[in-house]
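Researcher: Good morning. I'm working through a list of sequences from a screen, and I'd like to move beyond sequence-only analysis. For each chain I'm collecting a predicted structure so we can compare shapes side by side. This is the next one on the list. No need for commentary yet; just the structure.
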Amino acid sequence: MSLIRTAAPSDVPAILGMIHDLAVYEKEPDAVKNTVEMLHANLFGSNPQIFAHVVDSETPGEPIVGFALWFLNYSTWEGTLGIHLEDLYVRPGTRGGGHGKALLRTLAQIAVERGYARVEWSVLDWNAPAINFYKSLGATPMDGWHVFRLDGPELDAFGEAQLVPAQVQA
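Model: Good morning. Structure tokens for this chain:
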């Protein structure tokens, strides 16, 4: 049985380690720029905007075995908040024990209790094990939608460009 709890400051190094493990799995081993200090500030600073739940090890004294990191989003159509799951990760040696399902159920329970409209996330199209797992829970892919991202030099260039006032027609 999984013991799911809200992440504590002492969990930050283990969470960051699993973020690195996830990056390796997703074929982006050098992409993580996050640090213990940055993650701690974002999770536990004066006005946290991200949240995390963790799976305790069944062996006392062992590090956590999984985490879900999430933040709130907003549906203009529904007129209410939702949860965006940024990362879900369970250590390979503990997969199949219901930990991922327990983490997602925790987020679903939070959404239901708070009256949120949905829990949503992205998954790489080649990650068949994750896709099959999510479908087994009743989640459905958002056909017809594409995820877009503006980052790196393109974000810098676009964000630094001088704004041109809109033309006003009389």
